[in-house]
Amino acid sequence: MTGSADSLPLQSKIIYGPVRSRRLGSSLGINLLPAGYKLCSFNCLYCQYGRTLKPTFSPTYQLQDMPKPELVAAELELALRRLLRDELSIDSITISGNGEPTLYPQLAVVIDSAKRLRDRYLPRARIAILSNSSTVGMPHVRASLDGLDLKIMKLDAGTEELFRRLNHPASSISLGKVVAGLKQLRKVILQSLFVQGRVTNSDADAVAAWVEKVAEIQPLSVQVYTLDRAPADKRIQRVGRSTLEWIAAQVRSRAGAPADVF
Fold first, then answer.
1. Dihedral sign, Cα of residue 164, residue 170, residue 171, residue 174
2. CA 21 from centroid of its chain's CA atoms
3. Distance from CA of residue 44 to its chain's centroid?
4. Kindly report the CA angle at 251 between 247 and 254, in degrees rounded to 5?
């Protein structure tokens, strides 16, 4: 795989793209989070958006910085109408943006409106989310996610120690809670990013512990990949294609799940 060394600026709009995604093809993005800063429950060393200044699990005090669901729907409709007018197709409508999208309090409302608009304008597009899995232990979040075509949820580590060193979650989040929530989520796809350097999750011991968690979760599939842009911490590096292929083979043989390298 090839990648850019450039970091990614924060999204300044609610709807962005379409962008070319390694995993989702031509993807129209939805940013439900503030335009001026990153709002996340993790502070991952590899994040392409840079550092999370204050990791949070309860963003209610920042509601004034988030777009209203009706504005999201209006902006999405404008974008879909424009694509239809220009005879452009997309593969997915992806909820992602400047941090962790499941922190948005009215996620279910946005998903419902996105499905309605998708069905009206571009019915072949899948509706997806890219999430760090931090909120998946909450029943109302899982209920919201069940309305999606693709639930692409993060799992980078198989031990609590490595989870904290690599992902730096907000204090109330544990790997045990994340795994328990993922086991209850139907038709989940795991996304797992591997690095080496200051923190390494691609060595034999780390991969073995991670594969055990994958086996517990029994996902539909696993997406195995590495850095594509400059990370928040420059002391970590991407891993090679051969390592990623080996990790994917471990998933297939030891967890019994399909795995693809991106």
1. negative
2. 12
3. 12
4. 120
Cβ neighbours, 10 Å, residue 254: 14
**Lookup result for tokens 């086991």:** 183
Joined tokens for residue 43: 């502070």
Q: For the chain, what are the domain ranges?
A: 15-261
Could you tell me which CATH number the domain at 15-261 has?
3.20.20.70
Q: Which among 229, 250, 235 is positioned nearest to 9, based on CA atoms?
A: 229
Q: Distance from first CA to last CA of the chain, Å, rounded? A: 7
pLDDT, one tens digit per residue, over 36-67 is: 899 999 999 999 999 998 788 877 778 889 99
**Tens digits of per-residue pLDDT, 127-176?**
999 999 999 999 999 999 999 999 999 999 999 999 999 999 999 999 99
